[in-house]
Design a protein that fits this description.
The chain is built from three helices and 18 strands. By secondary structure, the chain is mainly beta. It has an 18-stranded mixed beta sheet that branches. Strand 11 and strand 12 form a beta hairpin. The longest helix has 11 residues.
C-alpha cells in the first residue's frame, strides 16, 4: 500500500491571559509553601504567602521587600484583599490592601512602618553636616523617574514611626495619600518635628514632561537650629518658634527643584541667637575706641560669638530659587536690629546686610 502523505502540523493557538501584564516594579518570588484554595471562576484564597521583591520605583533604587501574609480574591467581582507584614530593608512594615478591578486596578491601602530612611534609596548626594570633598570634575546628577505614578490609582493612610528624607528627620508621621492620573497628594501630612509640630500638604504631578511639585508647610514650636543644620548644614541661627512655607517648583533633580523654587516663607522665633558675631560686644569695643580713633570698625565672623535675641521675625519672597527678605526685625533688651538681603537657594549662597 502506498504510504500516506504527512499532514502539516497546525501551530497551537497562543494562550490568552485575562490578567494585566505585571507592573515594571520588582521581581517577585513567591515561596513554595504558599497554599492555594481555588474555586474556578469564583474565588481564590492564598495562605502562608511569602514574597521577596526587589527593584526600583519612583526614583528610588535598591528596594528589597520581604512580606508574609494571606490574600483572598473574588474573581467574579474582580476584588482582592490582602494582609501582609514583613521588612522593607531594615524597616518593619504592616499593610492591609484592597484591590478593585484587575485590568485597571484601584488600590486602597493602610500601611504602617516603624522607620524609613528615604535617603538610603535615592541617588547619592553630598551628606548634610559633612564638609564637602575636594572639588573634582562635577558628577552628573541622576534624574529621578516618576513615570510609574501615571498609571497608579490608589488611596489610603501611611504611618511611620521615624522618617528621614534629605537628612531632615521627623517622627510619628501620618498622612492621607491619594494618587490618580499621575497626580499624588499627601494631605494632611502631620509629624513631630524638631521639638515642635509639622502640618503639611504636598502635591506631585508626574504628567508633564518635567514633574511639578507644590508644598505647604506650617511648623509650630520647632527648634530652628537643629532643623537648619540637618537641612542645609548651616549653624548660624538658633531659637524656637513658628516657620511657614508655601512654595512650588518643577524639575527631575534636586538641584533643578532648588533653582525653580517660587513662593513665600516666614519665621517668628523667640529666645534665640544669631551666631557668628556679637553685635553688643562690637558696639562696646567700638565705643571704647571712639576717644582715640574715628572710623568704621570691622570684625571677622567668630563661630563662638553670638547675638542673643528675645524675638526675631522675617518674611521671604522666593523667585526662581532666590529668597528675598527686607523686613528682618530682631529685638533684645539692648538692641533693635533690622536687615535685608537674599538667600540664593539654587547656588547655596547668602548675601545679607
Amino acid at each position: 500500500r502506498p504510504a500516506l502523505a504527512p499532514q502539516p502540523v497546525q501551530p497551537a493557538p497562543p494562550e490568552t491571559h485575562p490578567l494585566p501584564p505585571p507592573a515594571p516594579f520588582p521581581i517577585v518570588r513567591p515561596a513554595q509553601k504558599t497554599r492555594l484554595k481555588f474555586d474556578p471562576g469564583r474565588s481564590a484564597n492564598l495562605d502562608d504567602i511569602e514574597l521577596d521583591a526587589s527593584g526600583a520605583a519612583a526614583g528610588m533604587t535598591k528596594l528589597v521587600v520581604k512580606l508574609t501574609g494571606n490574600a483572598a480574591v473574588d474573581i467574579a467581582k474582580e476584588q482582592a484583599q490582602a494582609r501582609l507584614a514583613g521588612k522593607l530593608a531594615d524597616s518593619a512594615i504592616k499593610a492591609r490592601l484592597e484591590v478593585t478591578g484587575f485590568a485597571k486596578p484601584a488600590i486602597r491601602f493602610d500601611v504602617e512602618a516603624d522607620q524609613i530612611d528615604v535617603d538610603r534609596y535615592l541617588p547619592q548626594q553630598q551628606a548634610a553636616g559633612k564638609p564637602a570633598a575636594k572639588k573634582e570634575q562635577p558628577q552628573k546628577e541622576e534624574p529621578f523617574d516618576l513615570s510609574g505614578l501615571k498609571a497608579l490609582n490608589a488611596s489610603g493612610t501611611l504611618k511611620i514611626g521615624s522618617l528621614k528624607a534629605n537628612n531632615v528627620k521627623a517622627s510619628n508621621v501620618s498622612a492621607e495619600v491619594k494618587a490618580n492620573g499621575g497626580r499624588v497628594d499627601l494631605n494632611p501630612l502631620r509629624a513631630d518635628f524638631y521639638q515642635g509640630k509639622l502640618a503639611s500638604a504636598i502635591s506631585v504631578n508626574a504628567v508633564p514632561a518635567t514633574p511639578t511639585f507644590a508644598v505647604k508647610h506650617n511648623m509650630s514650636g520647632v527648634s530652628i537650629g537643629g532643623f537648619l543644620k540637618d537641612l542645609a548644614n548651616t549653624d548660624m541661627l538658633e531659637g524656637k518658634g513658628d516657620v511657614a512655607a508655601d512654595v512650588t517648583s518643577q524639575g527631575d533633580t534636586i538641584s533643578a527643584l532648588k533653582k525653580a523654587l517660587n513662593g513665600s516663607a516666614s519665621l517668628k522665633l523667640a529666645d534665640g541667637a544669631l551666631k557668628g558675631i556679637d553685635i553688643a560686644g562690637s558696639i562696646r569695643g567700638a565705643k571704647a575706641k571712639l576717644g582715640t580713633q574715628r572710623g568704621e570698625q570691622t570684625q571677622a565672623a567668630d563661630s563662638k560669638a553670638r547675638t542673643d535675641f528675645s524675638e526675631l521675625t522675617a518674611t521671604f519672597k522666593i523667585v526662581n530659587g532666590v529668597a528675598r527678605n527686607n523686613d528682618l526685625d530682631m529685638k533684645s533688651p539692648l538692641l533693635r536690629v533690622g536687615g535685608e538681603g537674599e538667600l540664593n537657594i539654587g547656588a547655596d549662597s547668602l548675601n545679607y546686610l
